[in-house]
């Protein structure tokens, strides 16, 4: 769940980027060294900024949410004072803290340009582009000295790619679907609706009906089907500022358990105050594990209680991917990238972006064999992408773009595997509403399209 929390800006609104927020060819960077002349960010800064290195959280280190906020405040203060030497130092601290995320490098480039360091700024911009990204800040007057040099790579990054095809279209354009799952026993799809506050079900013939309504009339977000136990888990979130929700409810989240065959509500579990339980995965024993995209916590339902199982390493955790062996779990943090995560101990190890792979901005993440499939609505351009892991599953070895810059893709959110196919919500409709949950003027919501890619 990303769209609502996506108001955060790197550098406290410094203007570089939101933090979250057609060719038939396949784009893979497996054999390409995108920038052989660019030194690694960690080689340059690792010794100087050891205290900020991307390690797991410990008892004597501040929670990631707090650290991130302090870094943003420092950058905002530096910018206000036009203290660009200090801004550069703080931007580099942020860059290391965010594990070398693409947009954090643009803050470093901004400072270098303000200080008259064109070549150093060009190194950062080339690193950003080597990760397949684009950003409107590169059209700003400050970046004009670099524009001609980087224009070819920028144009390449904006080109359309798709190896997916439409699977089906939802009949109601006003649903704004957020999450999707599948019951292989009954051969039915289940989707949550943000605007209609419902869960809808589609049968094998494509017929759509309401499975259940939000008991509190809040937007519905995460959904997971437990076909073996015939249960359905979902979350409802009272989004702060949404005018359709009583203001007294804002900031509340609830985990709901339904009977999968009857649609009856079996249990209700209130989340922490001011939480945003927008994403979920089921552990091997069926326990729901939910992510708080606003507060940074990860919670597991144990003995009817939501128990926090992380140690404060995350800023905005999203849909956790648990691989089939049950030993490997990966948490996509919308800001910091992907972390290998031990769901029993809470231990964290961040996957390196290697100056090649943009691992931030992921909403839905799914494990399939030796690959992680990501629905990346916080990248620019937005994309659905497959990251192939190395044999140890400790590093990214290659990436393959599934869909990017097409007419069918617009604020994609989540997906689900059905046998050998991966199906995903390609155009949820989030871009058609404002921060109050109201359809934007002169905007007409269109039916969501579910895309399909085979052979992953």
Protein described:
The structure is a single chain. The protein has 456 residues and is an alpha+beta fold. The chain has 2 domains: 5-158; 162-454, 6 Propeller (Neuraminidase). Helices cover 17% and strands 30% of the residues. It has helices at residues 41-45, 64-80, 84-97, 102-114, 118-130, 144-157, and strands spanning 27-28, 161-162, 165-169, 177-183, 188-193, 198-202, 208-213, 220-226, 231-237, 253-259, 265-270, 277-282, 288-292, 298-302, 305-308, 321-322, 329-333, 337-341, 348-350, 364-368, 371-376, 383-389, 396-404, 415-418, 421-425, 449-454. Strands 1, 2, 20, 21, 22 and 23 form a 6-stranded antiparallel β-sheet that branches. Strands 3-26-25-24 form a 4-stranded antiparallel β-sheet, with no helix packed on it. β12 (277-282) and β13 form a beta hairpin. α4 runs antiparallel to α5 (118-130) and α5 runs parallel beside α6 (144-157).
Topology of this structure?
Layout: E1 27-28, H1 41-45, H2 64-80, H3 84-97, H4 102-114, H5 118-130, H6 144-157, E2 161-162, E3 165-169, E4 177-183, E5 188-193, E6 198-202, E7 208-213, E8 220-226, E9 231-237, E10 253-259, E11 265-270, E12 277-282, E13 288-292, E14 298-302, E15 305-308, E16 321-322, E17 329-333, E18 337-341, E19 348-350, E20 364-368, E21 371-376, E22 383-389, E23 396-404, E24 415-418, E25 421-425, E26 449-454
Antiparallel strand pairs: 1-23, 2-23, 3-26, 4-5, 5-6, 6-7, 8-9, 9-10, 10-11, 12-13, 13-14, 14-15, 16-17, 17-18, 18-19, 20-21, 21-22, 22-23, 24-25, 25-26
């Amino acid at each position: 769940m990303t769209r609502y929390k996506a108001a955060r800006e790197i550098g406290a609104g410094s203007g570089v980027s939101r933090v979250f927020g057609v060719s038939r060819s396949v784009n893979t960077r497996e054999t390409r060294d995108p920038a052989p002349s660019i030194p690694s960010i960690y080689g340059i800064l690792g010794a100087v900024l050891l205290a900020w290195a991307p390690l797991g959280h410990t008892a004597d280190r501040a929670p990631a949410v707090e650290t991130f906020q302090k870094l943003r405040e420092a950058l905002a203060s530096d910018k206000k004072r036009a203290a660009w030497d200090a801004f550069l130092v703080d931007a580099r601290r942020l860059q290391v803290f965010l594990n070398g995320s693409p947009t954090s490098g643009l803050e470093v480039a901004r400072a270098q340009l303000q200080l008259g360091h064109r070549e150093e700024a060009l190194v950062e911009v080339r690193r950003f582009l080597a990760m397949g990204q684009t950003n409107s800040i590169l059209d700003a007057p400050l970046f004009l000295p670099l524009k001609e040099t980087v224009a070819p790579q920028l144009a390449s990054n904006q080109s359309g790619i798709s190896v997916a095809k439409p699977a089906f279209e939802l009949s109601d354009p006003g649903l704004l679907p957020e999450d999707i799952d599948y019951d292989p026993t009954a051969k039915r799809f289940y989707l949550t609706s943000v605007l209609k506050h419902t869960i809808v079900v589609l049968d094998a013939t494509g017929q759509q009906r309401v499975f259940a309504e939000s008991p509190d009339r809040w937007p519905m977000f995460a959904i997971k089907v437990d076909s073996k136990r015939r249960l359905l888990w979902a979350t409802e979130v009272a989004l702060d500022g949404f005018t359709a929700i009583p203001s007294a409810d804002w900031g509340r989240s609830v985990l709901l358990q339904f009977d999968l065959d009857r649609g009856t509500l079996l249990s209700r579990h209130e989340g922490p105050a001011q939480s945003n339980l927008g994403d979920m995965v089921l552990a091997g024993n069926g326990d729901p594990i939910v992510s708080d995209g606003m507060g940074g916590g990860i919670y597991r339902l144990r003995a009817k209680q939501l128990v926090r199982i992380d140690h404060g390493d995350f800023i905005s955790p999203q849909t956790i991917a648990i691989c089939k062996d049950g030993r490997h779990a990966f948490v996509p943090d919308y800001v910091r990238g992907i972390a290998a995560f031990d769901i029993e101990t809470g231990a964290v190890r961040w996957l390196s972006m290697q100056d090649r792979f943009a691992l931030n901005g992921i909403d839905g993440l799914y494990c399939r064999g030796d690959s992680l499939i990501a629905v990346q609505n916080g990248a620019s351009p937005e994309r659905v992408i497959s990251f192939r892991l190395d044999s140890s599953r400790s590093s990214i070895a290659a990436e393959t773009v599934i869909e990017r810059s097409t007419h069918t893709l617009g604020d994609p959110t989540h997906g689900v595997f059905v046998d050998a196919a991966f199906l995903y919500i390609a155009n949820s409709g989030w871009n058609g509403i404002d921060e109050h949950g109201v359809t934007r003027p002169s905007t007409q919501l269109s039916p969501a399209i579910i895309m399909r890619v085979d052979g992953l």
